[in-house]
Amino acid sequence: MNYSKIVEEIIKLDFKKVTVIDFKIKENVLVFTVKGNRKYYKCPNCWASTSKKQDLAFYKSKTPLKHLVLSDNRLVSIVTHKRYFRCRKCSSHFLEVFDFEAKNWLHTERFESYVLSSWWYMSWCQIARNTNSSAYKIHKILSKIDPQWLNKRGLEIMERLDKIFIWIDEHSFKWKDMILIITELKEKEVLAILPGITKKILDWWLKSLPDRIKKKIKGFSTDMNKGYRNSVQKEIWVNCYTVDKYHLVQEVNKMMYDILNLNKWLIKMDFVNIDDLFKNWKIKKDLIRKTKKKMKKWNNKDFKKYKKKIDNIIKPEFIEKDKLYNSKWFKINFKEITLDYYINWPTYKTLFCMREKNMSWYQKLRLRQITRDFDYNNFLKETRVLKENFIDALDEKNIKDIDRIIKEALDSEHYRIQQFGRTLTNWYDWIANFCKYSTKEFIFTNAYTEGANNQCKILKRVSYGFRHKDNYFRKITAKFTLWNSQKWK
Q1: Per residue in 409-423, pLDDT tens?
Q2: Which of 90, 118, 142 is the last residue of a domain?
Q3: Which among 62, 173, 442, 474 could bridge 177 via Cys, Cβ 3.0 to 4.6 Å?
Q4: What is the tens place of the pLDDT at every residue in 295-323?
Q5: CA dist., res. 51 & res. 61, Å (int)
Q6: Which residues share a beta bridge with 95?
Q7: Domain CATH code at residue 198
């Protein structure tokens, strides 16, 4: 059995230049003694290669070099045996230098890479405990991290790409102190992190890009922020600008919550009495006329599928309440919601947020009862159908259906639905580009940027916050440059 390959995989050294003399275990530390194999070395003064030895005796290092930490928190250290050389040209004396050594001769470069890459999920005091070293020494290694490494790495990524699609998003460091993150959509890489969201900072980053990279940028996306669009289009003229689908769905959910809370407030303040409403036949006839007017608009062939959705809504009479079972096949005792419980408890917000295809029979019964008993003017039902149609149109990327939804929202009697229609008209070009340029293979989504923001926030929570912004940027660079790159793995 070849033990040299096993040792080479453990300590990860080049055995063509180094040989292992001895091996010991001292207090859960693996100690390897090493000597060099190279015959020729370059003089540090005149850079001439020489093989002449000054003395046959070795210079033994007193303190072993800290090399790496294994998976079971076992430390590997190296004791070096160095030879003296004498230059033939300048006749100066020097010691041989190994490739794996750091400049201070107290640890190796592999140890530095371990400290730098493990800082994003550990504190430097915890790293010091794992490596049996002082916290000052670990802090001194971590101070070598430059926050500009991330921006330089982003330029290298953009250089090798043919087409670039960027996404701009922000998150907060402390209160209103914001940080801007710029990512690439296709490669899913962080390109830059800027220390603010002002126009000057974003313009400075865009102007710093060379012209050959600006020509490669074919599109960009934002989360419903026109300030980023104006600054990008001043420096880089791009026709493909889109908005995120998740934020559009979030706007629909906000509209539903506002209408639901307003409905509860009207009932609570006795502006609407439900018992008198259904006894009064005049008001009931007016409601029937309004629904008939809306149904007349849907007589065209294009809108038949949306008419079927409302006609095929499951009614409580069609469901046998005695045969309701949950996921574990236990019977459910269905009880109808009372008026006091509906007003005082906000537990049924999730019903209006969920899609109808993802609902259980029990949840559908609850939703139908709310729209039947407490929706006095059919506004909750209207927003529910509008939301289902809007999300289906975004999934199918059909701009004609979105046009129809905007017209319905603007023609509605509720001010909040009209406000949603106005927001869609303001962002119509962005939504049209989303439907035009998104394909099955590539969709303009901010999933990676939101994930990067979440990872940055997790860093703050693990570290119990940061006092200085520089330390926060250093930890982010340790995460996205050192940990993710192949060089440090």
Answers
A1: 998 888 899 999 999
A2: 142
A3: 173
A4: 455 444 444 554 454 444 444 455 566 65
A5: 22
A6: 84
A7: 3.30.420
Q: Are 215 and 260 in the same domain? A: no
Query: Does residue 442 fall inside a structural domain?
Result: no
Tokens of 479: 């995460």
**Domain contains 376:** yes
Query: 194 with 201: CB under 8 angstroms?
Result: yes
**Domains held by the chain: number:** 3
Same domain, yes or no: 469 and 433: no
Residue count of the chain, please give it.
489
Domain housing 350: 246-437
Let me know the angle formed at the C-alpha of 447 by 441 and 451, rounded to the nearest 5 degrees: 140
Radius of gyration of the chain (CA): 33
- Please report where in the chains the tokens 């570290």 appear, as a residue: 463
Would residue 450 be called left, alpha or beta, if left means φ above 0 and alpha means ψ between -120 and 50 degrees?
alpha
Please state the pTM of the whole predicted model.
0.71
Nearest to 427 by CA among 453, 450, 399: 399
* Contact in structure between 128 and 89 (CB atoms under 8 Å): no
Residue type, 117: S
Dihedral in degrees, nearest 10, Cα atoms 412, 415, 417, 422: 100
User: Is 232 exposed, middle or buried (CB count within 10 Å of its CB: 0-12, 13-18, 19+)?
Assistant: buried
